[in-house]
Queue: 2 jobs
Job 1
Amino acid sequence: MLSRLAIAVCFLLAALPAAARNLALIVGNDSYQNVSKLQKARGDAQGYADFFTARGYDVFLHLDLDGRGMTEAVARFLDAIAPGDTVLFVFSGHGWSNGRENFLVPVDIRDSGSETLIQRESFPLKNGVNGIIDEIAARGPALTVAVIDACRNNPFAFDSGTRSSGLARGLVRIRPPTGTFIAYSAGEGQTALDRLSDSDGEAHSVFTRVFLKELARSNELQTAFKATQASVNELARSVGHQQRPAYYDEVIGTACIAGTCNGATVEPLPVTAPVKPTPETATPRVARPNAAEEWKDFKDTTSVAALRLFIERHQGTAYAALAMERIARLEEEAAAAAAPVQPLPQQNQQVYAPVAPTGLRPNWCPEAQTPTEVVICRDARLATLDMRLTAVYLERLYALDSTARAQLKENQRTWLADRDRCGADVQCVMQAYQERIAAFGG
C-alpha cells in the first residue's frame, strides 16, 4: 500500500510544472583578433554576471567568443529556456548595422570583405527568423531583457567596389517582440564610449558602470534605465561626445529584474566624469509615483500642448525634464520644416490627393506598417490630424481616474482598428480623425 502511494506521489510530482527560472546569457568580447580591440567588454560582462548571480539568476558567462564558440553558447542557452522563464541576454563588444538589422561580432571576425560576407560571420540580434532575440522569444519566456553594449564604431573596412553605403555608425531601432525590453548603450546612429579617456581606470564601460549602479538602486527596469540615460548623456557631454542610451519596451506593465520592484521612481543623481561612488548620506529626490507610468504615454507624442500638460502634473521630476527636452526638439523640427502645413480641405471637396509631408510628423512614422499608417505619414493634413488627436486624447485620458482611463485606452484601441479599415483611402482616414477629434471636443 505504501509503495503504491509513493508511486502515485511520484507521478503527481512529475506532472507539476517546473518552477520558472531566471536565466542570463552574458557575453563579453574584448580580444578581437583582426579588428580593433576593446578594453572594457570583459569587465562589463563580469560585472553583469556578479550582479545577476547575486540576485538568483543561473548565469551563462562567456568571454572572448569566436564564431563557433558563440554559436555553441547561444545554442546551449536556448536549450535551457523553458516557457515562463525570465531571460536576460547581455552582449558587450563590437556590433554593426546594415541600416535595417543589427549584428553582434565574435572575436575572430575578419577585418574586411563584402558586407554579405561579414554579415554571414556575424550574429543577427533580431531579424524575424533566426536572430538571437527571435529564438529566445520562440521558447515562450515570460519576460526577455536584452542589454546591448555594442554600439561602438564600425570596425570594418570593406573591399572597394562592394556595397557598404548601408552601414550605420551605430545600431538601429528594432521592434521587439511582446514581453521584451531591449536596452542599447547608445541611441540610434550614435556610438558608445568604451571609456572616457585613455587614463580611465574604471572596470566598466561608461554605460555599464552607470546602469549597474542604477539597477542596484531600483530593479524596475524603466526607472533604472531613465536614470542611466540622463547620467550617461551628461558623462558623454563632459568629453565632447553624444551618447544617449535608448530602450525599446514591449513589456505590458512594469518590468522587474528580480521578484517585485524594490523602490520608488528615483530621479538620477548628477554624475560628473569620472564616476565617483555616491555618498551613503545623499538623499535622492523621489518623483511622484505615477510619473514613470504616465511618461510611457507621453514620451512619443508630437504634441507640445500634451507635453506641457505633463510638465504641469509632474513639475520637479526627472520626467518633467525629459518632457521639456522633447518640447525643445519638436520646436527645432518645426522651425526646420521646409513648408507650412497646408490647411484642411473644405468638407465639400470630393478629391483628396496626398499632400507632401512637412518636417513634423508623428513620432511613430519610422515604424509605420499598415497602409493607413503609411498614408498618414505621407500626407501633411493627416499627420496634423493625428498629432491633434493625440493631444486631445492625452488631455482627456489624464483627467480620468484609473478605471475610466483603462476603459478609454481600450476604446481608443478599438477606434484605431476601425481607422485602419480605411486602408490608404485619404478621405476615409480624414473623416475618421475629424469625427474622433469632435467626439473629444477638440
Job 2
Amino acid sequence: MKKKDLFRQLDALKNEIISLRKDLNKISNEKELWFSKKEGFSRQIREKISIIRESREKRDALTKKVKELKEKRAVLSEEIGKKISEFKKLNEEKKKLLSKSRVKDPYRLKSDIEKLELKLETEAMPFDKEKKLSKTLKDLKKSLGEASESMEIMAKAAGLNKEINEMKKNSEIIYNDVQQTAEESQVLHESVLALSREVDGLKAKEEESFKNFINFKARFAGINYQLKENLAKMGGIREKINKFNLEEEEKRKLKETMLMQSKEKEIEEKFKATKKLTTDDFLAFQDNIKNK
C-alpha cells in the first residue's frame, strides 16, 4: 500500500474518531441524565415509603384504639342494660307497694311533715290548734313509717337512675372518641392509599428511566468499543507511516552516502591527476571531513 493511501485512511479514521467522540460525549450526557432521573425517582420513592410506614403505624395504632374503645363501650352498654333491668324491677316493685299503701307519694308526705314541724317550732298558736297539729303530725309520721319500704325502693331507684345516666354520659363520651379516632384513622388510611398510588407512578417512571439509562449505557459501550478499535487502527496506520518514513530516511541517507563516496573518489582522482579543484569540490570535501 502506498504512503498516500495510508494518509488517506488516517484522515478518514481521524474524522470518524472525532465524530465518534462527539457521539460518545452526547450519549454519555444522556446516560448520566437518565441515571440522575432514576436516582431522583428512587429517592422520592424511599421518602414516600418512609412516610407510608409511619402513617400505617399511626393508622394501626388508631385502629387498635378504636377496637379497644368499642369493646369498652360494649361492656359499658351491657352494664347499662343490666342496670336498666334492675331499675325496671325496682319500679315495678315500687308500683306494687304504692298500690297497696295509702301513701301514694311518700316524698311529698315527708315534705309536708317537715313543713308542719317547722310551723310548730316557729309559729305561736293556740294550744288546741297546736294539739290538733301535733296529732296530725303524729298520724302523718305513722303513715310515712308504713311507706318506709316504698321510700327505700324509690331511693334505690333514684340512685340507680343517676348511675345509669352517668354511665350513659360515659358511653356517649366513648362513642364520640370512637368516631373521632376512626375519622383520624380513615384520613391516615386514605393518605396511605394516595401515597401508594404516587409510589406506583414513581416506580413506573423509575423503571422507564432505568431502561433508558441501560439503553444509553449499551450504546455508550458500543461506540466506545468502536472508538477503541479505530484508535488501534489509527495506531497501526501510524506505525506503517513511520516505517515508510524510516525507510525513506534510510534511502535518503544511503543516497547521500553514495553521492559523497562518488564525489570523494572524483576528488581523489583529480588530486592524482593534478587537476584543479572547483568550489563545489572544496565544499564536498569539507562536508566529507565533517561527516567523518
